[in-house]
Amino acid sequence: MMRIVICGPAHPYRGGIAAYNERLAQQLLHEGDAAAIYTFKLQYPSFLFPGKTQYDHGYAPEGVTITRAINSVNPLNWFNIGLRLRRIRPDLVIMRYWLPFLAPALGFIARLVKSNRHTMVVTIFDNVVPHEKRIGDTMLTRFFVKSIDGALVMTRAVENDLRKFSADMPCVISPHPLFDNYSVPVSRDEAIAHLKLPQADKYILFFGFIREYKGLDLLLRAMAEKCVRDLGVKLIVAGEFYESKKPYFDLLSQLGTGDRIIFHSHFISDDEVKYYFSAASLVVQPYKSATQSGVTQIAYHFNKPMIVTNVGGLAEIVPDGVSGYVVEPDPVAIAGAICDFFSGDEKRFEAGIEEKKKEYSWSRLTEALHSLVREVQRAR
After folding, report:
1. Chain centroid to CA 288
2. What pLDDT, in 10s, does the model give residues 111-151?
3. Which residues pair with residue 237 across a beta bridge?
């Protein structure tokens, strides 16, 4: 048995990283490890957060001890948390890293914890290099990488980014597991009725918060291509705008396709997710930049074929012709895949999806973490 502390978002914070950390803690506990989460007292100052709220007002996950402890902008807090973790001597601390803004806090805590000469500190990288780059990102990421003993990455693309900062750090690759915490699928008819949509129409889904790098504009342009217009298929955009919505609605006015785009532009709570994925025939991720995406693993959980763009590690997770399509981040290419899907047997990817799902279990992730620990121990 290992004593493990995960440092990163968790309840009451919302979002995919929080859900991942909670589900990982549950799996570790199920396997006999003593796992707990140290989450943030303050994650982002409000002026840095583009959404309406950082918080999930639902229930905390059962069985997981979550301590609100870390203040991302208070060095005195970093010192106190580092001392606390150094004193309690967990065998392993797992840091979640996705944004250089958090590098000073997490890097300082990691250095202080490791000074007890017992605790190993590893990181699960969502991405080493952020989607939207800012001045100072490289310096901050380098500071953080030097504080850790090893890394788990979800795609080879992220490993390649890590090697720009450390050529020899112990590193394992383990894809994002299925998000199986969103209940089970419901029937298409039930989902469409719940969302108050016409039953006669077919739907594709864009899911998740909206930022420029996610390429919603590419998908809106794809919806205007003739072959897609002729299909009459409708697009559900389910997620909160993390930037101005005006450019998107201006584009819709220009394209004249607003009657076929349905915006549910609010945060989608966990208990509502099943309705959006169950209503859709196809999930589209038209990203301009990405390393991986949790949306992919929600789609797998609900047995939905996908269109992903050939950026980052998306094509590693959704093999072309097996569980969907891999296309270039271009409206014509995206439209071509949409039209190909609806012009053939819409169930033709079912077998491939079921086979790929076997690779994305939470037990495989914990196996990879224990493998990483052994690599770190050998490297010490």
Report:
1. 16
2. 999 999 999 999 999 889 876 777 889 999 999 999 999 99
3. 206, 263
**Does 95 fall in a domain?**
yes
Q: Is residue 111 located within the same domain as residue 192?
A: no
Strand partners of residue 55: 13
d(CA 213, CA 348): 30
Domain shared by 147 and 204, yes or no: no
DSSP state of 312: T
pLDDT in tens, 54-91: 666 667 788 999 999 999 999 999 999 999 999 999 99
Range of the structural domain that residue 338 is part of: 188-357
- Tell me which H or E stretch contains 264: strand 261-264
| Both structure tokens of 86 | 């150094």
CA distances from 262 to 12, 143, 165, 205 (A): 29, 43, 43, 10
CATH number at residue 139: 3.40.50.2000
Amino acid 141 reads: T
**DSSP H or E stretch at residue 38:** strand 34-42
Say whether both 341 and 367 belong to one domain. Answer: no
Report if residue 55 sits inside a domain. Answer: yes
How many structural domains compose the chain?
Answer: 2
Contact 2, 122 (CB under 8 A): no
